[in-house]
User: What shape does this take?
Amino acid sequence: MSQWGAYGLARHGHQYGPMLAHYYAHTHLGHFRARPVRVLLGSGLDTVRFAGARKACGRQLRRGRPYSFVAGSGVALANSSGRQIAACGADGAASGGPIHVFGNGTYRGQIIAHDRGRIQLVNRVKIEGYVKGVVPCEMPPSWPQPALRAQAVAARTYAIASRRRGTFDVYDDARSQVYRGKGRETRATDRAVNASAGKVVMYRRRLATTYYFSTSGGYTEDVQNAFIGARQAPWLVGVKDPYDFYSPEHSWRVVRSSAAMRSALSGLYSGRLRRIRVLKRGASPRIVYARVVGSGGGTRVSGPTLQSRLGLMSTWLAFKRVRGSPAEVRARLARERPEGAVPGPPPGAGTGRIAPGGR
Assistant: This one.
C-alpha cells in the first residue's frame, strides 16, 4: 500500500475496505483474534527506569515513584534510591500502567526485562493497543479517516503475520513498524483503530503480509522485484496508484557529476565508466537488474544495489547525460518545474532522472 496513494483515494471518496483490496490484490477483510504483541524497545541495557506500574516482580509498587530493573545475575528490581528490593530471576515484569519508561515513552500493557547478560526490554501489549501506538507514527493523524483506517488494518495485519519465535515479535522501528506507545496516541488515530478493530487483510483463508510505504510514483511493484529474491505473493503485485501524485516525492530529479558517478560506482566497472544499461524492469517499471558498463568491463547489479550506491529514493530510474555546469543544470531543471510547485499527475510520473553534471 502506498500511503500517499491511500490519502488521495480517501480524498476522492474511497473507503478503506476497497482501498485495501486495491493495493493487496485478491484479498478481503476478515477478523482475527490475536494474542498480545511483544515489541522490542531496547537491548544491551544495564538499567531500565520506569514509573506508573502497580506491580513488578511480585511486589506492589507506589504509583508516583520511579523504580528500576537492573542487570546482574538475573534481573533485580530497585527502588528510587537504587536499593534492590526484589530479585526477579531471568525475567522481570511490571504491569498495571500505563507505564512510563524513562528515555523511551509511555506504554500500555506490561514491560518485561529479559536477562541476556544485559537487559532486553520488551513491551507486551494487546494488539489494539499496539496498533494505536503505530498509526500516528506511520501516518499523519490529520489525514482522512478512510486512509487512517486502512493504515490501522495494514499495521494490525502486518504485526500478526510477522510473529516470530523468541522473546519478541516485532521491533519498535522501521525494521517492523514505528511504534511509540500510548504517549503518541491521538484522538483521530484512536478513532480509526477502534472503527476497524479486529479487522485484517486475508488472502483466501490466511493472513496476508501487508507491506506498505510512503510513495509509489504512480505504480506499485511485484514483491519479488522490490525485494530481490523474495517469493512471489499473489496479493503483492504491481497495481496503478492514481493519486500518488499528492506525495511531494512522487517525481524527483537528482544531479550527479561524472566524478560523483565514478566514485559511487567504483568497483563495479573497470577502465572508464561508460554507461548504465538496464537489463530488466519490473511492473512499475522499476529497475530489477542493470549492468554498470566500463571500457574494461562491467558488473550486473540489482536495482536496490544501484539505488543504494547512488543514494536515490527509488529504483524507478531513467538516466540522462546533461551538458553544462552544475549551476546551469540546476537552473534548467528549476525552469522545467519551479521549486515549490504543487505536483500534479505528470506523464511518466515516478521516473527519477539522474543527470551527470552537478552537485
In short: DSSP finds nine helices and 22 strands in the chain. Residues 37-125 form one domain. The chain has three domains: 3-35+127-214, 37-125, 253-356.
